């Protein structure tokens, strides 16, 4: 039931980090993969494509900024034409630039909501019509445990991730009648470029390792299993949910 053979998955923000691990991990489970990221991330996208093709799966690469509605619509139209269809969407692209709320610039507030909120909306709305037509689809939104409890210097980011969880619940209710499930994954601290920049120091890494029930922080590959669950028939009766994948640093 976890087999994704003959499924096409679109992963945003897939040139590195969690998105790349998801693109490659879902390909390992049989999926062909459309990957997208900002045009400047071409090198990482091409490396991911090579890795996916080495697994014997097909891969299509697109440079698109998900905050640009027409770029998103073009990408989804071209990807659908080339790949045939998009069965699973993983809204993974995101940004985090830490700041105390009192110091936060208007530009940074807008930028976080543009990528982490509006971008999710644009990509989802571009993919939904074909899923509705086929009466089948899986959408996975990468939120964060920050959505559960904001932490200092991440108030704006946490607000965007709470938005992603709320959109997950509403999309689930608005699309379930067409056989589409929409779920969120809330990663804890994952050691990607974003995760390491955010922690800042070896001391902070060690502190959070000690806090975690599993006494380690996450690797991007730790998100693959939950994504396979939400992408496959294993989760056929699960929708509108948000799953913490955090090694036990948050429990609600
Ligand atoms: N790393 C963590 O600890 C952690 C924890 C919780 C949630 N998350 C979430 O997981 C997702 C992936 O994070 P990551 O740690 O791999 O970060 P990352 O910074 O390594 O990767 C994010 C990717 O998104 C892409 N991206 C950014 N803006 C974009 C845009 N406008 N259009 C297209 N692509 C864009 C980036 O180029 C990058 O490749 C994000 O949504 C992040 O908020 C990460």
UniProtKB/TrEMBL annotation:
Ranges for domain Ketoreductase: 7-188
Stored Pfam families: adh_short_C2
InterPro entries hit by this protein: KR_dom, NAD(P)-bd_dom_sf, SDR, SDR_fam
Domain of life: Bacteria
Sequence similarity: Belongs to the short-chain dehydrogenases/reductases (SDR) family.
Protein name: 3-oxoacyl-ACP reductase
Top-level taxonomy: Bacteria, Pseudomonadati, Pseudomonadota, Gammaproteobacteria, Oceanospirillales
């Amino acid at each position: 039931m976890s087999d994704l053979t003959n499924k096409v998955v679109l992963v945003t923000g897939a040139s590195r980090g969690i998105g790349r691990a998801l693109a490659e991990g879902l390909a390992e489970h049989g999926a062909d993969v459309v990957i997208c990221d900002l045009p400047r991330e071409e090198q990482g996208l091409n490396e991911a494509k090579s890795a996916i093709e080495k697994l014997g799966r097909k891969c299509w690469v697109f440079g698109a900024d998900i905050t640009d509605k027409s770029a998103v619509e073009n990408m989804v139209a071209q990807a659908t034409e080339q790949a045939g269809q998009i069965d699973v969407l993983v809204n993974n692209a995101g940004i985090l630039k830490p700041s105390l709320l009192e110091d936060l610039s208007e530009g940074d507030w807008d930028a976080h909501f543009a990528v982490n909120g509006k971008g999710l909306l644009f990509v989802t709305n571009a993919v939904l019509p074909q899923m509705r037509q086929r009466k089948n689809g899986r959408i996975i939104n990468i939120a964060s445990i920050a959505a559960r409890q904001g932490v200092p210097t991440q108030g704006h980011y946490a607000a965007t991730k709470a938005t992603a969880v709320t959109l997950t619940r509403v999309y689930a209710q608005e699309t379930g009648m067409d056989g589409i499930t929409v779920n969120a994954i809330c990663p804890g601290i994952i050691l990607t470029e974003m995760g390491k920049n955010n922690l800042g120091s070896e001391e902070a890494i060690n502190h959070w390792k000690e806090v975690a029930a599993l006494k380690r922080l996450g690797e991007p590959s730790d998100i693959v299993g939950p994504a396979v669950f939400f992408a496959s028939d294993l989760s056929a009766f699960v929708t509108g949910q948000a799953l913490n994948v955090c090694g036990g640093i948050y429990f609600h």
